[in-house]
Amino acid sequence: MKKAKISMFYPEEACHKTAMGLFESASDLPLICPHTHLDPWLFVDGSEAFKDPASLFVTPDHYVLRMLISHGISFTALGHSPLDSDKRKATPQAVWQVFCDHFSLFDGTPTGLWIENALAMVFEIDEKPHAENAQALFSHIQSVIDCADFCPQKLYQAFNIEDLSTTDAALESLDAHRAIRESSWGQPVRPTFRPDQVIDIGHPEWRENIDSLSRVCDLDIGDFCSYIQALEQRRVYFKAMGAVATDLGAEIPFTCCLSDDRVEAIFQRGLVQKLTSADARLFKGHMITEMARMSVEDGLVMQFHVGAFRNHNPTVFRTYGPDLGFDIPVAVEWTHNLKPLLDAFGMDERLRLILFTLDESGYARELAPIAGAYPAVKLGPPWWFHDSPNGMMRYFEAVMETAGIDNTVGFNDDTRAFLSIPTRHDLWRRMSAHWLAKLVHRGQIDIATAHNRMVDLAYGLVKRGYRLV
């Protein structure tokens, strides 16, 4: 009897050499960024887009804020004043000093890795920030920021970005996107349709948002039919402005299909603000299914981000606002919650439903089997807390055997921090190379296959996943 072809053992040194070769073969590929939270106005007139090091790396970054707050540092010291206060904020130099004083808190975290790599790749700084070099680093970064060449449009090209999308609320005018399209710059910055504010009927501002939707669409929204018509109209507008995708968030992925009479009754109770919590749950579940139906018809890729308990600390939310580090993951069940949507559209290849989760325990148990069976479903990359070296390797090990590489969509950076985009993609490519090298040295794939798949993981999957080819 012959020996087995697959050894399942691999020498670390040889594996490392293979991984480096795979990474280097894909390291110069362009970046596809189909899901960011950047302000599109950055690319219209970005001459004052980057004001100082603190506003680049500290004040807007919820990863940074949550770690520093967890060690007792105040929001005020980090550049955030209470919403109802005229109290002067800390100076950028003071915020930067506090950040550097406590930079060791980020040792071993992806946040520390991203920041140190961004400092090296963008500002040519190889020093780790600390209390003593804080102001020297501040001065150096500020001098680079103040240069005319340091602007978003030129950095877009310096970062080798091929395509980038922002995330835009359903009521947005998209004036910035129009200005970009009408400019002579010529690089793609696409909007993404985010309907949460107009489909979350239980939100206190939903009724006000529906009034705004009526004005934007020049349509009297008095029943569910006219409401759906307005949403479809907005999707047509976003698509005309270059959108290739929508984005929807939920704490749990509950979906349902209500009768016309039942959904109309709930909608009418929403208009007069006499909803129950059960009404709100059913309506949003029905609308998630409706979003899938619309994607079948108009071809927009449907992104679905699930598993965040938003604004977990009500005092922080009331005092300082959202997106300050107090969104906490929750456990998520997919098989039953997503079934009504999949019963309706899961076998329809016109739907591209990309699933993201903060509960990585569901990857091997539910998400990989779902993506490995339903033609409409693809898996998004590790998201948020799991966008890290360990999180990426757990994702590869949990997902790929069951779902298969081609039922995933490569990487997206999902960031508000423009300068972190290159280092995030760099990390994904390194971890992809490491995983593929392990497969080569176990004998599961040959080196030619690994090189082909390296290009897919770095570039091809995301282009195909978001229908950019």
Produce a short descriptive summary.
With 469 residues, the chain is of the alpha/beta class.
Number of domains: 2
Could you tell me how far the N terminus lies from the C terminus, measured between alpha carbons in angstroms? Answer: 47 Å
Radius of gyration over C-alpha positions, nearest whole angstrom? 23 Å
CATH classification, class level of the largest domain: Alpha Beta
Number of strands: 11
CATH overall fold name of the largest domain: TIM Barrel
Shape: globular
Number of discrete helical segments: 19
Name the poorly predicted regions: none
The CATH homologous superfamily of the largest domain is called: Metal-dependent hydrolases
> Strand order, biggest sheet?
6-7-10-11
Give helix % range: 40-55%
**What is the beta-strand fraction?**
5-15%
CATH architecture name of the largest domain: Alpha-Beta Barrel
Mean pLDDT equals: 94
| N-to-C order of helices and strands | HEHHHHHHEEHEEHHHEHHEEHEHEHEHHH
Largest sheet: 4 strands, parallel
